[in-house]
Write a structure and sequence with these properties.
Layout lengths: L7 H8 L9 H11 L4 E5 L5 E4 L4 E2 L4 E3 L6 E4 L4 E4 L3 E13 L4 E8 L3 E11 L6 E11 L5 E6 L6 E14 L2
Antiparallel strand pairs: 1-4, 1-12, 2-12, 3-11, 5-6, 7-10, 7-12, 8-9, 8-11
Length: about 180
C-alpha cells in the first residue's frame, strides 16, 4: 500500500489526541513511511574523469546514482544534485578522495542551487600527484523540497587546476 511522505508538523497533526477515533490506517501508513524514509545519495568509484577548476566555484561532476528510488529524495546523477521531496532538516554526509596534478589546495563547498552556500559545508583538500588525498564533512542543513544540493569546488587559480575524483560518497538523510 502506498503512503505520502509528510513534514514533521503534518505528522503531528495526524495524530492529535484521537478522542474521536479519526486516525485512519492511511494516516498511520503516512506516519510510518515518513519516519523511516530512505536517504538519497550519489557516489563514484574507480576514478571519474579529470576535472579542472579555476578561481570561481564550479559543480563537481562524475557522480553515479546510488540509493536510486529512495523515498523522500531524488538523486540526479546526470545533473550532479540531490533533491529532497519533503521540507525538513537533513544531515549531509560527504567523503572524497582526489588525486591532483600538483600540490594545489582545492576548496569544496556544498550549495543549495548554484550560489547559496550551506553553512558549515566547506572543506579543503591539498592535492598531490602521487597520493590520493581525502576529505569529509557531516553537517545538518534545512532544506525545502525545491532545493537542489550539489558539491562545488574552486582551485583559487585563474588558469585552472585539475584533479580526478577517485572515490566519493555524498548522502542526504532526513533527520527532522
Amino acid at each position: 500500500m502506498s503512503y505520502t511522505l509528510r513534514t514533521k508538523a503534518a505528522i503531528l497533526g495526524l495524530t492529535g489526541d484521537n478522542t474521536t477515533a479519526l486516525i485512519s490506517p492511511q494516516d498511520l501508513r503516512d506516519a510510518i513511511g515518513t519516519l523511516f524514509s530512505s536517504p538519497g545519495g550519489l557516489y563514484t568509484t574507480a576514478g571519474a574523469s579529470s576535472q579542472s577548476f579555476n578561481n570561481t566555484y564550479s559543480l563537481v561532476t562524475g557522480w553515479a546514482s546510488f540509493f536510486s528510488g529512495a523515498e523522500g529524495m531524488t538523486t540526479l546523477p546526470a545533473n550532479d544534485y540531490i533533491t529532497p521531496t519533503v521540507d525538513g532538516i537533513y544531515m549531509a554526509f560527504l567523503s572524497l578522495g582526489i588525486q591532483a596534478t600538483d600540490g594545489t589546495t582545492f576548496t569544496f563547498q556544498l550549495r543549495k542551487g548554484t550560489s547559496t552556500d550551506i553553512d558549515g559545508g566547506r572543506f579543503r583538500i591539498a592535492g598531490d600527484a602521487s597520493l590520493v588525498r581525502n576529505g569529509s564533512l557531516f553537517v545538518p542543513v534545512s532544506l525545502l523540497s525545491t532545493d537542489n544540493v550539489g558539491l562545488y569546488c574552486t582551485s583559487g587559480d585563474v588558469g585552472g587546476k585539475s584533479f580526478t575524483l577517485v572515490d566519493g560518497q555524498f548522502v542526504l538523510l532526513r533527520i527532522s
